[in-house]
Design goal:
Length: 1281
């Protein structure tokens, strides 16, 4: 352990300019150098503050933020304008009530959200860790918020890392530390970090130069001392958890908001929905209408004053008519201000929050297996879910389970079908369909009790806590076991192929003397060796978290014998190497070699009991099944489990060696030289090891078949193997094609033996790349590519990744809803086509179009040819549709500027598109192209980090919380656990959210325009003076209080069609795609209806009271009452749902108005100068004429709308109305109607909703039996499935 003494004071040679622009300097906080101390103080502390406001800054800052909304500025301007005497319309104090109420409601909401963040921050900052104290010369407990850059932090097992730290010490003898990044990216598998190389064992006082803070979780660059390179494996990130390591010490390099975790914490996503953009346009039209009305009043007032002859009743004034008209313009702006719906924006926020609440609490989205539910991360685009036109989906982990299970393999050109293994998988599928318990076990059936014997006295904290969003202050119990990913029984319990078992058992048979058999067996051993060690799997066990057992003595005489075996009977390349000379005959050598090894050939450990491959060891023996593999991907886990099924078992891993048990050879220590990790550009990974038998440097590589097959060439100096290698490549390619047609994921396995001189040359260049500060990633990529050439192909694997449940039904429903589904995958073409068929994206009647081109010119010609073919097919009758399949290389050409138009036109005419071998960048480009060029609503769904760019580009991004971490989820707008949830999310909640919000917005515009017009018509009878026929309190409260609650309930609970019917009839979704609920024509028709109703509401009371002695307020009383009743009953006509809650709110609003006006007229004497409403409403409500006028006005105003709905619903009912009527049928009639609907849809060439006239005579019974309706699903055909 380090002795943390203070370094000697010295002069810093680091310039401030360089620090400010390029990199950061970190030294121990114990330093006495004043300049370096000042540099450390300039860095951010570890105190995290995710709140916006403080106690003093809340009011000014919140007010400033709300002033960014134009509507708020507008109403504040009107409130201030009303204080100007020459233009004020009523009491100035009353005019500020609406804007104050809106600002207050928004401020309270912001304050509540900020207070939750404050509680979370306080809890996080108060967590405790051990910091080295200069005064006490020991580690002491400090709060997280007191940690600073340069501090030394000591952590124990299961403790959470408080800041980004450079790992200086680990209690592991190999300098390794294991961390769990679940709080950061959702991945529960362990990741390995290592101590910085070449550090002194005493006195750390070196200077660290590293890059400035950034949000790249996978990169860290810097150097220490004499340019010792630092990289990502040396960095412990904030919010990760220490696992399987007793003690670690690190120096803080980034703290607080400069840590990578906080740099990636963007909180909820905010987007502008399509409906909101349309709303802004209509608000501008309302402003135009307001200006026209005010100009009309101003001009009318000026003309009225100019033509006025008898002015004895006016106060003498020298103001000209033109100036009076100018003043009157601003007065009318104040009077008619409610034309702009001030409360609409607040109402929309409230409705969207309630919609999100209903979505998140839908039990159908709950996944009991993963204990997760839907997450709504974007708070303001719920209505966009109802307008999606294109869905772009990843395949692996999105359409499929991402539970990779080894299915079959080919080795040295020989295919091993593993038929028993296939039957095992079929049994699992059947059991899962029946709901058997053993298939529903947790993925952590083999639990890893991390650090069982260590002191773990601090608990973990959830992801939400560490990112500033906590749902509570209780942390999980530290005693909970950690789950091991990719280790379900289905994935682990692989049944070996008996033919391959028989060949491996030949190791102890004289048949091995045959040259061909020995060569093939060498391929087999190398193949399984590659499966076992070409990975980054961490091995643990319940009783030993970091499983690196000691190497047991091999049952063979010596490893030299095995070396001779490989050199004599291996591939020709082995014979070219120097080897000890022996005169012993092969037969006698083999008998001598296996006379001792036979007894323990295939047992996990030396045992006197003979056990061959494929048989179970005795119960007293240690079971290899106790090993737990922590893999970073399901592919890795599947291959390691496959090798283990053949007793090629990875038993332990350390930084410098692997412990592998091979059949017939016992446990062998394999020296691990280098790991060349997988990346998307190389599409492969490799390990460089020192072979335990031959002592040669061997490169084992696994990767995509398209890459490995190109790199698999005959090694130099092995001309005799050219024919055999060519045969192996040819046969392997055939097997790969068969695997792809079966829908299997394929990986190729290869190796390369390096000469010592060749390895030394490569090692020098690779060491330079590893220690480079600039362009380190590029140099490492170049170094890996330089090594991975002239590979010897060993074989390939076929891994099955099953479809998730209900994927075909979901895709079929989306297509029937008018949504075009594209699949963007990195798999090969045959695999993608097979999956497309399995999930019903590609129907048997579809015509398949494939685009595979090697040049841009060929791509252009092919696109034109395919487009012409599609046009001919569309012209011909009986063509069901086209599906386009494009490979990655062709997609590169098609996305270029001069070809993307042709590609888009072709793909637009196809029913579905499958892009295979596509990169993450290509996925995002495809989504962006379709979104921008076709101007359609797009949705992207994926589960992995390679889908992040696609998810962020789409209008709506959905992440699946699957097996590949949480990167996609954290970048998404919504997160679900299964693809099948997309059906209800779009077809039900999307439809409801869009129709509810669109109807509510139209209703807001209607009621505001209707009421404002009443004030406008009155100006024609008062000389355009800006007077109103009601008191100012009723005028302000009419839209703000009396009619505000019903629209909210309308937007939250209105339901035109039930959820079951929306699921069964996906065609109903098309109304949202076409924006039928909120078209420009719909908006203007609503405005015309409001204009008509205002005319009726004003002039019927006018003629009724004409010639009477009613004053201004008496005339306005029936107008206000009639307007209220008209507006409330208008909503009753428009609502599709009426419940007791609706009745309560509507009746309550009416009673609230009449109670307020009655009490106001009784008690108010001087509260509304210059008018006096005392007794006015009380008198009016006591007269029969008042009620007669209100009744007649209400009926005549609503009669046209009522008749319009009755005629339209009788003559040309909408599809949603027909579906709503079906909801109310009894079960027998319901099933009959659904069958008829389904038959009509099948006969429709336009694939639209065409219903016969006989549907119009639907009779609605008085009862609904939802339980019985569900029982008739089986009788309604495919539309009910």
């Amino acid at each position: 352990m380090y002795s943390l003494e203070r370094p000697v004071q010295g002069r810093s040679s680091c310039s401030k300019d360089r620090l400010g622009r390029k990199r950061r300097t970190v030294v121990s906080s114990l330093t006495e150098d004043e300049e370096l101390t000042e540099i450390l103080k300039s860095y951010s502390s570890n105190k995290v503050t995710t709140t916006k406001y403080s106690f003093l800054s809340f009011i000014p800052k919140n007010l400033f933020e709300q002033l960014h909304r134009f509507a708020n500025i507008y109403f504040i301007f009107l409130a201030a304008l009303n204080f100007v005497p020459v233009v004020n319309a009523f009491q100035p104090e009353i005019s500020i009530i609406p804007i104050l109420l809106v600002l207050a409601v928004t401020a309270v909401k912001d304050l509540w959200e900020d207070y939750r963040k404050h509680k979370s921050d306080k809890f996080i900052n108060g967590l405790v860790c051990e910091i080295y104290s200069r005064k006490q010369q020991m580690y002491v407990d400090q709060r997280w918020q007191d940690v600073h850059v340069g501090d030394f932090v000591r952590l124990s097992c299961n403790e959470i890392i408080p800041a980004d730290m450079l790992l200086l010490y680990s209690s592991d003898p190999h300098g390794v530390c294991y961390i769990e990044t679940a709080n950061l990216d959702g991945e529960t598998n362990l990741k390995q970090r290592q101590v910085v190389r070449d550090l002194p064992r005493q006195n750390f006082h070196s200077r660290i130069e590293c890059e400035n803070p950034n949000n790249d979780l996978s990169r860290f660059r810097g150097f220490i001392k004499a340019r010792v390179g630092l990289h990502n494996n040396n960095l412990l990130l904030r919010s990760c958890t220490i696992r399987n390591t007793e003690t670690v010490i690190g120096i803080v390099v980034y703290a607080g908001h400069e840590t990578k975790a906080m740099k990636n914490n963007n909180g909820p996503r905010y987007k502008r929905s399509k409906l909101e953009r349309r709303l802004n346009v209509d608000v501008l039209w309302s402003v135009v209408l307001l200006v026209i009305m005010c100009l009309t009043a101003a001009i009318g007032h000026g003309l009225w004053l100019r033509n006025l002859k008898d002015t004895s009743f006016l106060i003498p004034d020298t103001t000209s008519p033109a100036l009076s008209g100018f003043y009157l313009f601003w007065t009318m702006i104040i009077v008619l201000q409610v034309l702009i719906p001030i409360s609409l924006y607040v109402s929309i926020e409230i409705v969207k929050l309630c919609q999100i609440f209903f979505i998140q609490n839908d039990v159908d989205f709950y996944n009991e297996y993963m204990d997760s539910r839907i997450q709504c991360r974007a708070l303001n685009i719920t209505e966009d879910l109802g307008q999606i036109q294109y869905v772009f989906s990843d395949k692996t982990g999105t359409l499929t389970e991402n539970k990779m299970v080894f299915r079959r393999c080919t080795i040295a050109g020989v295919e091993y079908p593993h038929e028993e293994n296939a039957r095992r998988l079929e049994v699992y599928e059947e059991d899962e369909a029946m709901g058997c318990s053993h298939t529903l076990k947790s993925r952590a059936s083999a639990k890893s009790l991390s650090c069982k014997s260590l002191s773990c006295n601090r608990s973990s904290v959830s992801l939400h806590t560490l990112t500033g969003h906590s749902e509570g202050e209780e942390s999980p119990s530290p005693t909970l076991p950690r789950h091991s990913a990719f280790s379900s029984p289905m994935e682990k319990d692989i049944v070996p192929d008996p033919f391959l078992v028989q060949k491996l058992n030949c190791l102890s048979s004289p048949l091995f003397l045959l040259r061909d058999a020995s060569m093939e067996l060498t391929y087999i051993v190398d193949f399984f060796m590659a499966l076992a060690i070409c990975n980054t799997v961490v091995v643990s066990s319940p009783n030993q978290p970091r499983h690196v057992p000691e190497v047991s003595r091999t049952p063979l005489k010596s490893l030299e014998d095995i070396k001779m075996l490989f050199q004599r009977f291996g591939l020709p390349r082995f014979s070219t190497l120097s080897s000890p000379h022996t005169t012993e005959s092969p037969r006698s050598f083999t008998r001598r070699l296996f006379s001792r090894g036979k007894a323990a050939s295939f047992t996990p450990s030396p045992s006197p009991t003979p056990t061959k491959l494929g048989t179970e060891p005795d119960g007293d023996e240690p079971r290899a099944d106790e090993l737990i593999y922590e893999a970073e991907s399901p592919d890795e886990a599947a291959l390691v489990h496959a090798a283990r099924a053949y007793r090629c078992t990875l038993q332990g891993r350390s930084l410098e060696r692997l412990l592998v048990e091979l059949p017939g050879m016992g446990s062998l220590a394999v020296r691990l030289l280098h790991i060349l990790p997988f990346d998307s550009s190389r599409k492969r990974m490799s390990v460089v090891v020192r072979h335990p038998l031959t002592n040669q440097v061997v490169v084992y590589t696994k990767g995509a078949d398209s890459v490995i097959m190109d790199l698999a060439e005959s090694p130099k100096g092995a001309e005799q193997s050219d024919g055999r290698q060519g045969h192996i490549r040819e046969q392997t390619q055939k097997h790969l094609d068969n695997y792809a047609r079966e829908g299997l994921r394929t990986l190729c396995i290869a190796k390369k033996v390096l000469e010592e001189e060749e390895y030394e040359i490569w090692l020098k260049r690779h060491a330079f790349a590893e220690t480079s500060i600039e362009n380190r990633e590029e140099l490492l990529l170049e170094s890996a590519q330089r090594l991975e050439t002239n590979l010897t192909l060993l074989g390939a694997t076929g891994i099955v990744d099953r479809l998730q449940e209900e994927v075909p039904e979901t895709i079929e429903a989306l297509q029937r809803a008018g949504v075009k589904v594209w699949v963007l995958t990195g798999d090969k073409q045959e695999t993608a086509i097979n999956i497309a068929c399995a999930c019903k994206l590609l129907r048997t009647t579809d015509q398949l179009l494939t685009a595979n081109c090697d040049s841009k010119e060929a791509c252009k010609a092919l696109l034109l040819e395919l487009r012409a073919e599609v046009e001919r097919g569309e012209a011909a009758e009986g063509t069901s549709g086209f599906t386009l399949v494009v490979d990655g290389r062709t997609l590169d050409f098609a996305l270029q500027e001069d070809l993307k138009g042709d590609f888009l036109e072709l793909s637009r005419r196809c029913r579905a598109v499958v892009c295979c071998r596509s990169t993450p960048l290509q996925k995002s480009h495809v989504v962006q192209l379709v979104r921008d060029q076709l101007r359609v609503m797009t949705l992207a769904i994926g589960d992995g980090a390679n889908d992040v760019s696609m998810i962020q580009v789409a209008d709506v991004g959905i992440g699946i919380s699957g097996q590949e971490g949480m990167q996609a989820v954290m970048s998404s707008d919504f997160a679900i656990s299964r693809f099948k949830h997309l059906r209800k999310l779009l077809l039900v909640h999307g439809h409801w959210c869009y129709t509810r919000l669109a109807n509510m917005i139209l209703y807001f515009f209607y009621k505001n325009v209707m009421y404002v017009n009443l004030l406008f018509w009155y100006q024609f009878f008062c000389g355009f003076s800006g007077s109103v026929m009601t008191n100012s309190w009723v005028l302000i409260f009419f839209n703000l209080l009396f009619t505000s609650a019903p629209p909210l309930l309308y937007g939250i609970l209105d339901k035109d069609v039930s959820a079951d019917t929306l699921i069964k009839l996906p065609e109903l979704y098309k109304s949202g795609q076409n924006s039928k609920a909120y078209l420009p024509s719909t908006f203007w028709l609503t405005m015309l209806d409001a204009l008509y109703q205002s005319l009726v509401c004003f002039f019927i009371p006018y003629f009724a009271y004409a010639g009477s002695d009613a004053d201004m307020l008496s005339f306005g009383s029936p107008i206000n009452a009639s307007a209220l009743l008209i507006i409330l009953l208008h909503q009753v006509i428009e609502s599709r749902t009426l419940t007791w809650l609706h009745v309560l709110v509507l009746v309550g609003s009416a009673l609230f108005y009449f109670s307020f006006t009655l009490v106001f007229s009784v008690v108010c004497v001087t509260c509304s100068p210059p008018t006096n409403p005392l007794g006015v409403d009380k008198l009016q409500m006591s007269q029969p004429l008042f009620y007669g006028v209100c009744a007649l006005t209400t009926v005549l105003a609503l009669l046209p709308r009522f008749l319009f709905h009755a005629l339209r619903n009788s003559i040309s009912p909408s599809d949603t109305l027909k579906a709503a009527l079906m909801d109310q049928l009894n079960p027998d009639n319901y099933c009959r109607r659904m069958q008829h609907w389904n038959q009509t849809q099948a006969q429709s060439k336009a694939r639209g909703l065409i219903i016969n006239v006989e549907d119009l005579d639907i009779k609605i019974p008085d009862f609904i039996l939802p339980k019985e309706l569900k029982e008739c699903r089986a009788a309604t055909g495919s539309v009910l499935s």
